[in-house]
Amino acid sequence: MKEIDCRGKACPHPVLMTKQALEGLIEGEVVLIVDNVAACENVERFAKSQGCPVTIEKRGSDFHLRLQKEKSGEGHETVSEKKDRGNIVVYLNSRFLGTGDEALGSILMKSFLKTLLELEPKPNGLILINSGVWLSSEGSDVLDTLRTLSERGVEILSCGTCLDFYGLKEKLKVGKVSNMFTIAQTLFEAERVVRP
Q: Which residues are CB-neighbours of 56 under 8 A, at least 6 positions away?
């Protein structure tokens, strides 16, 4: 049995640590320790999506989640074992994720993009329009994440009109300058468009 302490880890780290633990295990048991309800629910939901039964024990302010991984073929089909889902495009029209507080929106966007690094299949493309083009430009705090996505085959397209509008065309640091025709064509050809 492997025990992993996720206490004090911000979202999405407990789920990512769970994913890594399960990937490194052919079969057996993993216990994850988290210190808040949200992390407990997120880890439980992820483990169940991977076909792993979960039992939860509350100890003081901590939650101990016991996950049981079965050999492939004996349990449910895991997300990573499902067929390739085809052409997936992520569409971001803001440098913030969600509406409301911009500081929170920036934290959520950073977390969302880092999480894309862990997902399979990876999206085929990432389209950035309006203030979303700030993400791929000089000074962005997600440039390293976007560069890694690009290295892993994710095409990053930033709207040229938007880059011009914000005075960023010469400051683009990752991906390609695109146009509305290519953006529209990419969206229409996608089997799925994800707009968080």
A: 40, 44, 63, 64, 65, 66
